[in-house]
Amino acid sequence: MKKTSLIAGLLMPVFAMAQDNLIVKLEANKSENASKKFDFTTVIKLDVTSVKNQASSGTCWSYSTNSFLESEMMRMGKTPVELSQLYSARRVYEEKAVNYVRLHGSLAWGDGGECHDVINMYAKYGAVPQSVYTGLHYGTDKNKFGEFQGILKSMLDAVVANHNGKLTPSWKPTYNAVLDNYLGPVPETFTWEHKKYTPQSFAREVVGIHPEDYVELSSFTYAPYYKKTILMVPDNWSFDKVYNVKMDDLTDIIDNALNSGYTVAWAADVSEKSFSWKNGVAYIPEKEYDNMDDSEKAHMFDGPKDERHITPEMRQNAFDNYETTDDHGMHIVGVAKDQNGKKYYIVKNSWGEKNDKKGYIYVTRGYVKYKTTGILLHKNGIPEELRKKLQLNREQD
Q1: Which of 68, 160, 168, 381 has its CA 20 to 30 A from that of 349?
Q2: What is this structure's pTM?
Q3: What is the domain-level CATH number for residue 33?
């Protein structure tokens, strides 16, 4: 996921400016009355670490899934460690570059990735604390990836152009040197709380999750249900497969997970006019935005509204016609109800705390059904009947 909803994203990688511009765009989707007109009561709120800010980078997938792993540590009774989001991203940029060259540049390039990328990099390269690897090796106090990603893309395109008629082995160490200069060299060993670790031993001994226990799911009408299918989005650079389930299964799984103490990493489209970051509310209005009059548009977030009934066909059509795009990764951590008893998911974001909900957003079940591109969670969070259909055995926590 990355912020590439702007037309410029079709012309070239948008990197840092993409997120900045999308947030500005979403700031327009707001009402000054929303904080007074919505009255949420928390039903479930699972353990989470603090809200972070990915700043000018499209690394939401890494922030959200590392936040998910931190909650997994808490669920397992461990003291959570803030994990380095840019360590995961750094490893992805290494791996993605190889695929980009192998495919002669016919692969989406940029900051974007998927929830499974964090799990895959964890399995292969381990993890490190954020304090050990901040990724801020180029003189800023927060992520600012425009220059950095522009240089990476230019280098790789020069390699793909193959001016020598044959690629040399020098391109990989040269490319990795740029990663070192911007994000910092990867530590082979480091000390954490007076003990020496490698990234792999830290993942094994401190974080303690088992990557094979985590599964990713989505819902498409074009593929068989309860089988795996390739997630057909540009940022799935590794061509990973997801379990394909029915649309209603998505929210059933999330509900079961939260009720059982498991949080969920969530990938979704956030370009809808009914997604208000400023107000911290997202829903699917009964009317299409283009069919609303000016008054209806102005009052979209003046308290709870009725929603459109979502069908699998609507969901698939929105995906096929680019209304639903793979925009953003977040972290579902709880459940709340509004003053009318309607259910919302409590979602932790990575855009800092400068919204009405201090970094969170309350999202309806209808929005999740319509706009989800993928969810990732521990397989024990999936209802038993669905685990059997997916042929997933329950693991001992």
Answers
A1: 381
A2: 0.93
A3: 3.90.70.10
